Structure formats: structure tokens, C-alpha cells
Amino acid sequence: MAILYHNPRCSKSRQALALCVASPRNVSVHFYLSTPLDYETLLSLLSRLEGEMSSAIRWNDSAFKEVDSLNIDRMSAESIASFLSLNGHLMQRPWLDNGHTTRIGRPVESLLELLQ
Fold this sequence. Notes:
27% of the residues lie in helices and 14% in strands. By secondary structure, the protein is of the alpha+beta class. It has one domain (2-115): 3-Layer(aba) Sandwich (Glutaredoxin). It has a four-stranded mixed sheet, with helices on both faces. A hairpin with a 4-residue loop joins strand 3 and strand 4 (102-104). It is globular and about 40 Å long.
């Protein structure tokens, strides 16, 4: 079963949810702001992430300036998982994981292949 890591306040995440609902694939929805992801889960997701690992963080979010981010290694899954486990609100969204591949839905159409 695929899992959509969803933030209902995000338009891209809502678009991704609509794609999931319309797809033939069984997708569960994880509201990561109300049920934060732990370090191990994030590390597992990052190990399957397609694309650059640094894309997992919302670097340009205004809230990013308010947190301690000096020690983030953009190339390290451990560093990014540690940061996001403490600052889940700065996770790029949405994420879709089918158990083999994790993708960030930017653009949301990039998730279509995982939903087939």
C-alpha cells in the first residue's frame, strides 16, 4: 500500500490527494503535522527518495529562518532526517511512498507513475 504524507493546508498536497483518490491504487494518508514522523521513518523514506535529498526540506520557507539549521548537511540522509524529525513543518510536501520509491510531488504529476 502506498502512503501519501499529506498537509491539508498545502494546495500541492491537496492536488496530490485528489490524484490518489482518483487512482486505482490503494493509498493511505498520513497527516504528518498532527502525527510527526520519527527519525527512523524519515531515514527510511529518504533512502528511497528519487532526486536530490536536499529537496526534502523547505529551505525558502519563512519559518526556516527561525530554526537552528547551521548543521544540516544537504547530502546526508541522517542529517536531513534528524532535522525533519525535529522540524516536520519544514518538510517539503507532498511525499508519496509506494514501499520501493519515495517521490516529492513537485510537480504533483510526478506522482502519477507511482499511482499506477
